[in-house]
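Entry 14: structure prediction run for L-fucose:H+ symporter permease. Input pasted below.
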Amino acid sequence: MSAEPKFTEKRYTLVLCFVTSLFLLWGVAITMGDVLNKHFQNVLHISKAASGYVQFSIFGAYAVMGIPAGLFMKYFGYKRGVQLGLLLYAIGAFLFIPAANAGSFGQFRLALFVLACGLATLEAVAHPFMAALGPQETSDQRINFAQAFNGLGGVIGPLIGGYFILRAEHAHTADLVSVKYLYITIGLVITVIAIAFSFVKVPELHNPHTVATDTYAVGAEPIADKKLFSHKHFIFAIVAQFFNVAAQGGTWAFFINYGREIMGLTDERASYYFSLSIAMMMVGRFAGTFLMRYIAPSKLLSAFAIGNVVMCVIVAQGAGVVSFVALLMVNFFFSIMFPTIFSLGLKNLGRHTEQGASFIVMGVVGGAVFPPLMGIVADKHVATAYFLPIICYLVIFVFGYYVTRAKIGALKPK
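Run finished. Output tokens:
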């Protein structure tokens, strides 16, 4: 009998810890954008539809940077890719200084775009990087484990934003000074981390997805030398990721609005509940990592998608506490979707894995498209806007069903 595949190897431990920290860093940045969404409504006096362009700037960067990040990683390696991502992250944070001084929504969007180019680079690098830190059989577990810390970063982001930006008694609640100093601090922290990573020695890595004799995907199409876009599951993964992040972007962008308009909360308290909802996502990712030992990732993905269809129907009713609890639970079911779609999309791509990762990252542009659309509906009634993500979760359900039928990366329950 063959031994159970290891989660990782001892020689990869330090690198794995550092790469996991990258997931936390972009979690902070993404959810801080949702706090800024509400703050810009308050200070710059823009509509919900207009504030949705905060997410457009962030997620639009993924469409622009996805392929260049993949090519950079291919020619210069994982470590240089991480350093480039951290550099762009820091530059974008420092661009908040002139944007705040000018009080310009356009300049803020430019700063967010540059920062998000860094996030897109980190994301394109970190997923295949994490996959390479062990056997392919456990890549789903490693990526979901790392994404749990992305959830932790997502918890920290609204807490920081709520306290330093939205707190009612804060001296600069009605201006942009606190935003400027907060992002100066973030830029300095990211710069220090980038310098520290330059001293980390990365062991020689062999991409596990290039092993053609892998028994993990029994019944799947052979790797051989197929062209990248000949892999149907990969194409479907891009589509699923588009709709997945579309749902995420819209749900998160108007969470604070929902808390204020449906529950009567202050912006600050609503941001803390938003942090709690992200904590639910982190719990879901740890739970998902465990459940994938017994349930095929694709089947679990489909089950969680149906869970969110039900949650969104309840949220859209605007029925007080019941609907608000359902809104919190959306992130629990959302938890495994991004990393699982990503990991399943990379299965059996062989030498095309890094390039495939960059295309799946480009699917994140869905988060740029959906928030402005939801914002149009939310300007009339914020609860009704939550009917729209149901479309996205149905697409994800079909993707999970397709991968299950194709037997791609389907772990057998013990």
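Notes: Confidence is low (pLDDT under 50) at residues 209-224, 410-414. Will compare against the previous run tomorrow.
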